[in-house]
Amino acid sequence: MKALKFNSISEFKTSKITTMPISSWYEITQEMINDFAKATNDYQWIHTDTEKAAKFSPFKKTIAHGFLSVSMLSKMIDEVITIKSIKTGFNYGLNKVRFPSPVPVDSKIRLHSSIIQVEDYPKGIKVTFNCKIEIENTKKPACIAEFIILLFE
Questions:
Q1: Distance separating alpha carbons of residues 141 and 101, to the nearest angstrom
Q2: The domain containing residue 38 runs over which residues?
């Protein structure tokens, strides 16, 4: 995977790039799932109780929170595109978020994305990405969403 690199917002906008590189694979460990549960106070057994999940879950192991996958979008987008002049960026929001397939513990995920829209925003731009988080060796994605970020020079 080779990141797209631009010197400025102006250079990025004139590039007319739509398809983004694919991100690296990220393994979803039980430690990550447990840390996410602590951060969100979501201790549902399907995520955190390995023994109960092995016995009662249809997946026979714990699964990641859907929002854990969504929370990784910022990191994965940041990995595949760099605009050197950017001083700061903010998550603006999400559209059309769905979780077609659960992410079992110890699975690997990666991002496939494209740019839907680039809009001027006061002192920056608003970029909307079409995102699909793939699970290694699984047909259905973990997450599909439109992810919107603000970038400022």
A1: 6
A2: 4-152
Q: Which CATH number characterizes residue 130's domain?
A: 3.10.129.10
Which pair of structure tokens corresponds to residue 133? 């988080």
Rounded distance between C-alpha atoms, residue 3 and residue 112, angstroms: 13
pLDDT along the chain (153 residues), means of 10: 90 90 97 98 97 96 97 96 95 96 98 96 95 97 98 96
Model pTM score = 0.93
How many domains does the chain fold into?
Answer: 1
CA angle, residues 109, 65, 141, in degrees to nearest 5: 40
Q: Nearest CA to 141 among 86, 96, 83, 93?
A: 96
Q: Tell me the pLDDT tens digit for each residue of 77-111.
A: 999 999 999 999 999 999 999 999 999 999 999 99
Find the DSSP H helices in 1-153: 9-15, 30-40, 45-48, 50-56, 66-71, 73-80
Distance in angstroms (rounded) separating the CA atoms of residues 55 and 76: 33
- Structure token digits, residue 145: 């969403």
